[in-house]
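queue> holo job accepted ((2Z)-2-iminopentanedioic acid)
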Amino acid sequence: MSYVDEVLAKVREKNSAEPEFLQAVDEVLNSLRPVIEANEEEYKKQALLERICEPERQFKFRVPWVDDNGQVQVNTGYRVQFNSAIGPYKGGLRLHPSVNIGIIKFLGFEQIFKNSLTGLPIGGGKGGSDFDPKGKSDREVMAFCQSFMTELCKYIGADTDVPAGDIGTGAREIGFMFGQYKRIKGLYEGVLTGKGLTYGGSLARTEATGYGLLYLTDEMLKSNGIDIKGKTICVSGAGNVAIYATQKAQQLGAKVVTVSDSTGWIYDSEGIDVELLREVKEVKRARLTEYAAQRSSAVYHDKKAEGTNVWSIKCDIALPCATQNELNLEDAKALVANGCKAVAEGANMPTTLDATKYLQENGVLFAPGKAANAGGVATSALEMSQNSERLSWTFEEVDSKLKNIMVNIFHNLDDAAKRYGFEGDYVVGANIAGFEKVANAMLAQGVV
Ligand code: NDP
Ligand code: 2IT
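queue> job finished
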């Protein structure tokens, strides 16, 4: 049995109740085969893959808080500090009822390679809670965030572990958490990223994941002789990543015709009105039905009632920006049948393994999330730099650094794929390019 197969078997046995984690490990280890085979003896002796698949440490804690009726509620909090070989743990906090340890581990595992791809000194971590901010009052959200941080603050710090936003965690939640950290620890430090601009946040961090997704997609298309201008794009999601992906796609001359949330989706034949979308989602925190009500060119589709989703719409480019496993084999078949040329993942692991394979086999350019959505965490690292030097850079300065990082990521993964004889396979390229730096750092640091 090869070393990769041996480790895969062990990881499956040990984590059998964590399907999302196993899916992420499966994809990464399988695509690392050429590198592992070239160094099999050393890596095996050093148990490098076993170490990479085992978090350095993980915390699970009680988060009690009082709701607006005076009732005590209890949620579970998590932080997984996965790998610190190349820098302090870095990664977001997801607040969503579906959160469990397997989901946090899959996200933390992906984050190791994503953070490495950015070229910046950040290790991999992730956290969150099964708390649902949806429908809660600002006071309830604050009560939860303060309780969550009261425990989390014991394990994080500007040079230890720096959390940020993810699903359900935006500027409001980061603000409440930062305030509580400062109050308990008495430290005004860059312990979180995605902060507000008046207290250490970076310009362009809000836009960074969506903008970065488009910078990388544009570079991938260009290098395959395709101009993004005039192309039709389907976006899923209607949150932070989806909104700014839509905005940048439009700035680059493409037309985005769909967005979605967990209950339904919009087809807008005139192209999505980003300002209206921001008003509905960021300001009013309302459903997409509200967008449709205010825009005559938009049609709302109820996901459950119709059993449909945005991937049924004809497009040149698909950008899944909502959540994991939201684009399955059936969706991939519909995209291919409709002539889709490229898929780039704004979300983490939105495409199932069989769908990814089908897209690649049918000639669709496929940019995996750990590369395509790395602009968010890269800009978080730029926020950490600004906090360390106690300066703030202009929007243009941050945005141009972000663009350079995304263009470099594309060429690094394109080169890595070519080096190992997998030209055009950006999944293999991203995993290899991300892995090499982490592996070298781990080997140099001994058995830790
Ligand atoms: P937001 O919370 O801002 O938005 C999430 C969007 O996805 C919402 O429209 C939400 O709909 C929808 N969604 C969430 N969960 C589900 C679900 N289970 N089924 C269907 N739709 C769902 O999150 P972000 O935009 O920040 O994150 C989106 C994705 O991008 C995630 O995979 C995240 O991990 C990834 N990502 C985020 C980065 C960031 O900087 N924020 C960086 C890199 C990756 P609804 O409003 O109905 O819940
Ligand atoms: O998945 C991700 O990369 C994020 N949610 C952003 C993490 C960060 O530290 O900015």
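queue> Residues 418 and 424 are 8 Å apart (CA to CA).
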